[in-house]
Amino acid sequence: MDKALYDKGLAQRKATLGAEYVEKSLNNATEFSKDFQSFITEYCWGAGWGDETLPSKTRSMLNIVMIAALNRMHEWELHFRGALRNGVTLDEMKAMITQITIYCGVPVGVECHRIANRVLAEQGDEI
Fold first, then answer.
1. Tens-digit pLDDT profile for the chain (127 aa)?
2. In angstroms, what CA-CA distances link 99 with 32, 65, 108, 125?
3. Is 67:76 a contact under the CB 8 Å cutoff?
4. Nearest Cα to 16, choosing from 68, 65, 81, 62?
């Protein structure tokens, strides 16, 4: 493990997904999954998200669309929340969901709206 890359990834992961969520994921890792948690923190969040070529907002926008295309809606919700933290506006979210609906299909667009509405209602005036 590259400690510097892991630390960079951990900071980025917490900034995007929220420290509470990340700490829970790390603390709840089993003997079986703890190496995986280290791997995604170092590789995805350190090497990928830690590359400063693209800003976090742009990475969030890309993830929202790719994860929807893969129909991984649990992860989509997580990254929807992260995209809001990374400065993606609600108007940008609406536009992305329209693109998702056109290119991935109406059912996934409907599911994105369902999740977005629930998250926004939960967050209330935090947004």
1. 799 999 999 999 999 999 999 999 999 999 999 999 999 999 999 999 999 999 999 999 999 999 999 999 999 999 999 999 999 999 999 999 999 999 999 999 999 999 999 999 998 855 5
2. 38, 8, 11, 27
3. yes
4. 81
Summarize the chain as % helix, strand, coil (round to 5).
80, 0, 20
Q: What is the DSSP letter of 70?
A: T
- Residue 8 CA to residue 5 CA, distance in Å, equals 5
Whether the full predicted model's pTM is greater than 0.90, yes or no, is no
Angle at 60 between CA 49 and CA 1, to 5 degrees: 20
Q: What are phi and psi of 105, to 5 degrees?
A: 115, 155
Looking at residue 31, its amino acid is E
Q: 22 φ, ψ to 5°?
A: -65, -45
CA dihedral defined by 82, 97, 90, 23, rounded to 10 degrees? -10
For residues 12-45, b (16+ Cβ closer than 10 Å) or e, as one string? bbbbbbeeeebeeeeeeeeeeeeeebbeebbbeb
